[in-house]
């Protein structure tokens, strides 16, 4: 079976500035990996490249054996830039519009969507948040609603860019425990960037560090 994520000699840059130079990497099913690195090292750029949103200067990325664009239906993504699509929109309408990514922004309200949405809201403790306008939620609450959306299509690969920012320590622990359990139970793999990885280490299998254009994968227990 193809690994969930495979990078072969991947080079990423912004203009002439190379951020990652000919990196190889493999992540397997059911693993939770923390992406670490100082400001400006290229974490967001790497995660965007995994979603097919940033071009490669060289090399190849495969997600479950497919190119990032072809693997869209297999991936869930929570970007770092979380500007509100429409401040008065409720979380429920926002999430309904993103279900399956095939609705051209039009919400669907069938029973399948309702059940899938309810399950994801329960995972993130967002049931009581989704019927309020997004603009009236706190930063940490909004993060949980957006995380529900990333989980909505039961992805095999979940890419999260600083999902814990703005959450209090209690919610950070609950979300990390939930993600760890989903990895174990469903085989989903998670790659998530976060600053201050110490608090998250006990939930993770690996730490992927970006430093001086290199990627290094290590066991989280070391
Ligand atoms: N659109 C852009 N055009 C040019 N340079 C960019 C662009 N976006 C980011 N950069 C630069 O690329 C580098 C890496 O940015 P990136 O956002 O990937 O870093 P990061 O590791 O996620 O940082 P942080 O921890 O601060 O979020 C930074 O030096 C940044 O200034």
Describe the structure.
Belongs to the ABC transporter superfamily. Keywords: ATP-binding, Ion transport, Nucleotide-binding, Transport, Zinc, Zinc transport. This is Mn2+/Zn2+ transporter ATP-binding protein. GO terms for molecular function: ATP binding. The protein has 222 residues and is an alpha/beta fold. It contains five helices and nine strands, in the order E-E-E-H-E-E-H-H-H-E-H-E-E-E. Strands 5-6-7-3-8-9 form a six-stranded mixed β-sheet, sandwiched between helices. The chain has a three-stranded antiparallel β-sheet with strand order 2-1-4, with helices on one face. Helix 2 runs parallel beside helix 4 and helix 3 packs across helix 4. The two termini are 28 Å apart. Residues 14-15, 19, 37, 39-45 line the site of adenosine-5'-triphosphate (ATP).
Runs in which pLDDT lies below 50 for 5 or more consecutive residues are: none
Mean pLDDT: 90
Shape label: globular
Radius of gyration: 17 Å
Number of strands: 9
Provide the succession of SSEs.
EEEHEEHHHEHEEE
Q: Which ligands are bound?
A: adenosine-5'-triphosphate
Strand arrangement within the widest β-sheet reads 5-6-7-3-8-9
Per DSSP, what share of the residues sits in E-state strands of 2 or more residues?
Answer: 25-35%
Major beta sheet, specifics? 6 strands, mixed
Distance N to C terminus: 28 Å
The tally of helices reads 5
Overall SS class: alpha/beta
Question: Approximately how much helix is present in the residues?
Answer: 25-40%
Family: Belongs to the ABC transporter superfamily.
Keywords: ATP-binding, Ion transport, Nucleotide-binding, Transport, Zinc, Zinc transport
Pfam families: ABC_tran (PF00005)
GO molecular function, one term: ATP binding
